[in-house]
Amino acid sequence: MGGAKNCPETPRQKMIGMMYLVLTAMLALNVSADIINGYAKVDDSLHSTINTVEAKNEFFYRNFKSMMDQNPEKTKEWYERSLQLKEQSDSIYNYIQNFKDELVLMADGSEAPKNATVGQLNKKDDTNIPHNYGLNQKNGEILKNRVVEYREFLKGLCNNRLDKEFDVTFAVSDGVNADGETISWEATLFHEMPLCATLTMLSKIQNDIRTEESNVLTWLTNQTDAGDLRVNKLQAYVIPKSDYVIRGGKYSAQIILAAIDSTQNPEYYIEGQRINDNGLYEVTATGTGLKKFKGSISFLNNMGEMENLPFESSYSVGEPSVTISNTDLNIMYRKHENKFSISVPGVSNDKIKVSVSGATVRQSGGMWVIVPGESAKEVSISVQAEIEGKMQAMGSQKYRVKPLPQPGAYFKSREFEYSDGYISRSALLQKDATIIASYGPDGLLNLPFTIVGFKVKINGTFYDVKGNKFTQNEINKLGQLKQGADIIIADIRAKGPNGDITKLKSLLLTLN
Which spans in 324-460 are helix H? Predict the structure, then answer.
C-alpha cells in the first residue's frame, strides 16, 4: 500500500473559509441583513462538505474492517486505533450538534426542525442567546475544553506525527479585538454574535472534526504496511543446512525468493562491527568446535526511520583430516590400552558413537581407549555418527590382536643405553645408572615398563637386587673389577603397562 499524503484542503473548503472570514468581518461593521443571511449559504456549504467527508470516512472504516478480517496480525493495532478515532470523533461531533440544537431551541422554540441549518432559522440575528448560553452559562468554556481534549487525543493516536496540523486546525488561543483588547476563544464565538454566525462557526468546527478524522484514517491506513520494505528486485537463493553430506545421508536446502530494494544500501553488523555493504561475512577460522555469531541489518523503512533486524547463526570448525591406512599393520595388542583417534568430518565428537567386538572401549581425553580381551584374536571397530538427529553407520575396521612384543633390557648410563658389549668404568659406576626395559631407539612402541628386580654376577658371585639400580654394595664390588672382567645381569624382571611381570634376556657387559 503506498504512502498517501494527508488529504489537502480542497478549493471548495478554501472558498468556504474565505466566505466565513469575509462575512465575520462585515458583521463586525454592522452590515445589512443580506450579509447576515449569507451565513446560511456558508452553513449549507459546510453541511454539504461534511456529508461528503463522512461518506469517505465510512469507506475507510469498511476498508479497515476488511483488512482486519484478511490479516488480523498485521492490521489489529491500527484497526483498534480507528475504532477509538470513530468513537471520539462522533462524541465531540454529536456534542457540538447538541450545542447547536440547544441554541436553535432557545431561539425558535420546539417548532424548529431537528438539526436545523442557519437557513431554516427565524431569529438568525439574535445576539443574546449565543452570549447567554455560551458565556454566561459557561458552555463555551466546556466546548473549548472538549476541543482541546480531542486535539490531544488525535496527537497521541498518531504518535505525535501530525501535531502541527492539529494545533492549527483546533487552535483555541486567545485573540485581540479591534481595540487591542485580549479576548478569549469562546468570546470570539459568542460575545454579541448573531445566532447565524455562531451556528456557522460551530458547523465549521464540525467540518474540521470530520476532515481531520479523514486525514487520520488515511494515516492509520498507511501504517498497516509502514514497516514493509519497498522492493524492486527479486532474487532466488538456495540456503543448504550443510554443504557436506555423507553417503546415505540427506541433502537439505531451503530455496527462497528474496525481494530487495536496489535503491538503498542496508548496513550489516556482526557483533557490533559493521562489515562490507554486500553483506558477505568472511572470517578466518581459529580453534575448533561450534562457533556462534549474531548481528543485525539496519535499513530505512517506509516511514524514513532506521530499523534493525537482528539475526544469529553458527558454524563448526574442525581440524584438517585425512585417512591413510596400512592394512598390513592393522594390529592392536592384547590386554593393552590401545589409543585411537576417531573422527567423522563435519561431525563433533559428542555426536560420534564407537562400538567394538572382542574388546572394551572408553573415551579419555579426546581419544578412544580399546583393550582387547585375553582370548581375542580379532577386534572390529564400528563407528556411528548423529546426522540430522539420526544415528548413521560411518564404517568399520578390523584389527588383528597380538600380545605385546618382548622388550629388551638395557643398561642406561647418562644418555647411552648398553646391551651386550664393552662398557667403560666411568659409565658402569655412574651414580644414576639404571637397568631399563625398552623397545630400543628404533622400536615402534614406547610403553612404560618398570624394572622390579634383577641379579648381577660379579667375580663368579650373583647378587640379588630389588628395583632397577645397583646398591652401594654392588657398586663397591664393581669398582674392584679389572679391565676385561665380565659383568652378567640376569633374571631381569619387568612389569608391563598391563601389570604382567615379564622376564627379559640377560645382559653381558665387558669392562674395557
Answer: 425-428
Identity of the amino acid at 318: G
At 2 the pLDDT is 39
In Å, the largest CA–CA distance within the chain is: 158
Coil, helix or strand for 329?
helix
How far is it, in rounded angstroms, from Cα 96 to Cα 489? 124
Query: Which position has the higher pLDDT, 148 or 287?
Result: 148
Decide: 29 and 185 in contact? Cβ < 8 Å.
Answer: no
Residue with cell 475504532: 83
pTM over 0.70: no
Q: What is the dihedral of CA 165, 170, 174, 176, to 10 degrees?
A: 80
CA distance 173 to 48: 28
**C-alpha triplet 42, 47, 51: angle, nearest 5°:** 150
Quick check: 379 pLDDT over 90? yes
Model confidence over 274-290: pLDDT tens digits? 987 777 888 787 777 77
Q: Which secondary structure element, helix H or strand E, spans residue 198, and what is its range? A: helix 195-223
What percent of the chain has pLDDT above 70?
85
Taking Cα atoms as reference points, which of 440, 436, 430, 429 lies closest to residue 481? Answer: 429
Cα dist. 512→45, 230, 420, 422 in Å?
136, 97, 13, 6
428: which strand partners?
none
Instruction: State how far the Cα of 151 lies from the Cα of 158, in Å rounded to an integer.
Output: 11
Q: Which residues contact 216 (CB under 8 A, 6 or more apart)?
A: 85, 154, 157, 158, 162
Q: Are residues 289 and 312 in contact, defined by beta-carbon separation less than 8 angstroms?
A: no
Does residue 135 register a pLDDT over 70? yes
The set of cell numbers assigned to 35 is 450579509
Are 78 and 223 in contact by the 8 Å Cβ rule? The answer is yes
Indicate whether 5 pLDDT > 50: no
In whole angstroms, how far apart are CA 498 and each of 330, 334, 374, 378, 381?
Answer: 21, 9, 11, 19, 21
Write down the H helix ranges in 71-113.
72-108
Q: DSSP states of 15-75 as a string?
A: HHHHHHHHHHHHHHTT--HHHHHHHHHHHHHHHHHHHHHHHHHHHHHHHHHHHHHH-HHHH
Tell me the mean pLDDT in the region 380-404: 87
Q: Assign 3-class secondary structure to 282-302.
A: CCCCCCCEEEEEEEEEEEECC
Task: Report the range out of 24-33, 342-351, 414-423 with the highest average pLDDT.
Answer: 414-423
152 Cβ neighbours under 8 A, 6+ residues apart: none
